[in-house]
Each structure stands twice: as C-alpha cells, then as structure tokens.
Amino acid sequence: MGSSDTILSSWLFLAPNFILAALMYTLLGRVLLGLIVPPESPNYIWRFFVRVTDPFVAIISVVTPKAAVPVVVWLFGVVWLFWLRVGLLYLFLVMGAVPRAG
Length: 102
Fold this sequence. Notes:
102 residues, 76% helix
C-alpha cells in the first residue's frame, strides 16, 4: 500500500468521522445550553447551536414520539450520532481500511 493510498483511506474515514463528531458535540452543547437559555433567546451562541443542529433535529424528530420534549429529541440525536460513528468505524474495520498509527 503506497503513501497516497494511506492518505486517501485515512481521509475517507477521518472526514466523515470528524463531521459526525462535530455535529454530535454541537448537539450536546445545545442540550446543555438549552437547560439555561430560553428557546427564543437572542444570544448569538445559542442561535449558532440552533442553526447548526436544526437540520439534524428535524430528521430525528420524525422518528421520535411527538410527546417528547425538545431536550429529549436532542439527546436522542446525540445517541444516534454516536451509533453512526460506531457504525462507520465498524464498516471501515470490516473493509480493512481503518487508518493505522505510525
């Protein structure tokens, strides 16, 4: 395996994993901030969290019971993203394409 193959396989795993991790931790930040900030707050940090995570929350709310409060939907989103990352790792392990250190 050449060095260009190693770099390509690393980025094929690392880029989606990074995006999923960033979304997961941003959603977790929204959960924590949502406990102390009102939903319609003009706070720019809160608006950032809402704007970044709303598309994913809309997808999660389709499979979450309508009676669930928003914080529960957000927590389900964190769990779904975690399992997506685990599934991505498993997929790359099965394919034998997990980047190796060194």
